[in-house]
Amino acid sequence: EAASAGLRLHMCLLQPVMCSQVLRVRGQAEDSSLQDRGQWASKAEFLLAVAGQIIGLGNVWRFPYLCYKNGGGVFLVPYMLFLVVCGVPLFLLETALGQFTSLGGVGAWMKICPLFAGLGFASQMMILHSCVYYIVILAWAFFYLCSSFQTRLPWSHCNNTWNTDSCRGFDRHNMSDLSENATSPVIEFWEREVLDLSASVDRLGSVNWRLALCLLLVWTVCYFCVWKGVKSTGKVVYVTATFPYLMLLVLLVRGVSLPGAVDGIVYYLKPNHTRLMDPQVWMDAGTQIFFSYGICLGSLTALGSYNKFNNDCYKDCFRLCLLNSSTSFIAGFAIFSVLGFMAQEQGVDIADVVQSGPGLAFIAYPRAVSMMPLPQLWAVCFFLMILMLGLDTQFVSLEALIMSVSDLYPTLIRRCHGREILLLLVCLVCFLIGLLMVTPGGLYVFQIYDHFSCSGASLLLLSVCQSVAIGWIYSADRFSNNIKAMIGYQPLCIFRLCWRYLTPAMCIGTFGFSLMFWSPLTLANGVTAPVWATVMGWTLTLSSVSLLPLWAIYSLMNTPASLRSPGSRPCPTHQIYIYIYICKSVDVASEIFF
Question: Which residues hold Na(+) (predicted)?
């Protein structure tokens, strides 16, 4: 009987497609009382959900700035190289992995390469961190949206209670009269009314109840978008994923029709070939690909797991990657046409009005719309777009996290209202932690979270591990055969080459450059992060990355021991299956490195 069981396991290892399908059916049939895991009702739901996840604020406020900063059109050279070598191959890897196993980020890696299951835990920890701080941006946008319905935009003049004597309206007529300490009404609205920003990172202060209420409202919306699982998420994305494109089109048409728009677009794309020799340009291109494509966060794996087994995820990968990069490129025209108009109105150079991140969304663009006719209309359009772009990224990430946990504990969570209760607890904990970021010192905490918790270093390390796990340990050829079993044909051979060589080489090189040029984080208003803030930041980084080696050590120490223990109960089939894969992983790794 033992020999027969060993033969069956051996056949499973030789035929991973059959084994995976058998294990999946067996796992689903264990308890018929469990709630159905669910599937997308149509391909459109899958495409819109993934589009909503990967197309977010980074496309609108980060890519255009990086393009301008790093040589204009020349920036597209390293960007396209990283897209082909890292972005598309890893995007296909994660999506196909979820579809093949029908499991979320943790369960998929446990099944296909148990020694590297820490990849799943690390990605879920990064999702949890992002859920804490990313939604704070939406609370700020909601605050601005509510303020946009006033008869006169509050950031367009200096007659508000929060304005100081140094407040001056920046326009062409009074630029020469500005003193050295003058500030603009839009900056005072952002720092004094919205944030009530403290002068030091050491002074958090009390919670801003208005921002806290905005944060609570956004969390409530996210909860009800996700609480019924894929059934509710699949319907909500029809609105949240398409509405931003409508607003982007409106803003693009309005922007290119403004005086000075051509100057802004030329400034956006003007090539500077000397910038290609700067390592920082290549690092910016790589990190932009990883951030904007949602790689190594486990969300692509979770969304792919809701697909039917024979869905053509290969073609979907190309469609979604093309849509994502095209959106980033087109958003640059919408943003820089408006910045060109603002520079002409103020009589200054475009470089003086260009900002990145929150500065673009909450300072530069609000100032621009205040100079347009019907400023309330354009302000509402812009902040609705920001809300929708961020909202679907937030709740799709939340869906990926909840599904990964429910795959680990299906008998506990997929009964009665277990999922809804778990979702409520996650939302509540993230909301309470997020309250730190709606205090006077909250912007500093937000920037520390943003820089370290889902940092480029973390994403690059996880990308290397993913490539090694699939390309070498599980075998790129075997994974290509798995994809062929689903879609009927194999991917191009370039994907196997990337998984084995090109992707890990590019990621390791970029990671090395990031360490060589590392410098202390500079926070808002030029404040340098103190030592304790840097330590806290690296702790956030290690909280996710460290799970990979910890899980590998745990697996190597515990699973073999249970097999060798004298007098112990017979090991379950899944323990033998994991143990064989661990031994196989060690053998293959030793061949690679020794």
Answer: 52, 59, 292, 324, 389, 392
pLDDT band at 355 (very low <50, low <70, confident <90, very high): low
* pLDDT interval class at 430 (50, 70, 90): very high
Beta strands in 139-293 (DSSP E): none
Question: In this structure, is the dihedral angle defined by the CA atoms of residues 155, 160, 164 and 169, taken in order, positive or negative?
Answer: positive
Report pLDDT for 123: 93
Residue with tokens 């994991």: 578
At 485, list the tokens: 């079993």
Number of Cβ within a 10 Å radius of residue 352: 11
Question: Annotated binding residue at 389?
Answer: yes
Between 418-434 and 118-147, two packed helices, what is the crossing angle to 10 degrees?
A: 60
Q: Looking at the domain 44-169+181-560, which fold is it? A: Amino acid/polyamine transporter I (1.20.1740)
State residue 167 phi and psi, 5-degree precision: -70, 130
Average pLDDT, the chain: 82
Contact, 92 vs 393, CB < 8 A? no
Give the pLDDT confidence of 260-315 residue by residue, as tens digits.
Answer: 899 889 888 888 888 888 877 888 888 889 888 989 888 999 999 999 999 999 99
Using CA of residue 16, residue 18, residue 21, residue 24, what is the dihedral sign?
Answer: negative
Least confident of 88-92, 565-569, 584-588: 565-569
Residue 59 is assigned to a ligand binding site: yes
Using CB atoms within 10 Å of the CB of residue 78, give its burial: 0 to 12 exposed, 13 to 18 middle, 19+ buried: buried
324 is in an annotated binding site: yes
Distance CA 456, CA 59 (A): 16
Question: Taking Cα atoms as reference points, which of 262, 160, 161, 143 lies closest to residue 212?
Answer: 143
Q: What is the model's pLDDT at position 181?
A: 66
Question: Euclidean distance between the first and final Cα of the chain, in Å?
Answer: 37
Tokens of 566: 């004298």
Distance of CA 93 to the CA centre of its chain: 16
Residue 481 annotated as binding site:
no
Alpha helices in 351-417 (DSSP H): 358-359, 365-369, 375-408, 410-413
Q: Which residues pair with 183 in a beta bridge?
A: 167
Give strand pairing partners of 167.
Answer: 183
Secondary structure element (H or E) that encloses residue 91, with its range = helix 88-101
Domain ranges of the chain: 44-169+181-560
Residue 325 has which token pair?
A: 């990069």
